[in-house]
Amino acid sequence: MQRxxxxxxxxxxxxxxxxxxxxxxxxxxxxxxGLGRTRPDKTAGLFHQIDLADPEQVSPLLADLIAxxxxxxxxVHNTAELVIAPFAETSLAEYQRTWTSMVQTLVILGQTxxxxxxxxxxxxxxxxxxxxxxxxxxxxxxxxxxxxxxRGLTQxxxxxxxxxxxxxxxxxxxxxxxxxxxxxxxxxxPAKMMTPADIxxxxxxxxHQPSSTWTQELDLRPPSEGF
Length: 227
What we know:
The chain is an alpha/beta fold and about 230 residues long. It has one domain: Rossmann fold (3-Layer(aba) Sandwich). It contains six helices and seven strands. Helix 1 (about 15-25) crosses helix 6 (about 195-205), helix 2 packs parallel to helix 3 and helix 3 (about 90-120) packs parallel to helix 4. The protein is globular and about 50 Å long.
């Protein structure tokens, strides 16, 4: 078992924030493993293409990684499924897809890694939220309902597992994250967007807070964002 480089897992390691997290954890001396449905054109660290909503795929892979590297010291849940449509035009299947992508994936991930992390003595679980975690906007009913559920699940995990040594944090990303795709979609000045590497640095610092001052929820936004 290779314990010289502790394990970090990024579930939802797509282009942008996911890959920036993998890069930051690698730079911090960790073995960083990205997990995701779609392999980005360029990947940092190790990457496993996997359906994070399928326990039959997730559990064996994570068991193998833990056997090889030990329990992860940092786990980030960063999956997303954005549906924007009027309520009457949002299908039940779209609601189910957003819940599956954002909530079911955390249930499967948490049930697989948290017992091993507790047994090994601690670690950090960080969950990426959004503005929609706090308020539901018009035409965002599917996305917001899943993000609300994800926030509630994260709070429950914090109250259960923090006394057992696991730092559980929810990060509200209140703004547009700068990626090639988001620049095309939003035609927004990059100075008004969130830089993935800067978010990743904050996650790194969050994961290394002393236990006497753990943050359970943190909100991040560019200075131009109204709130």
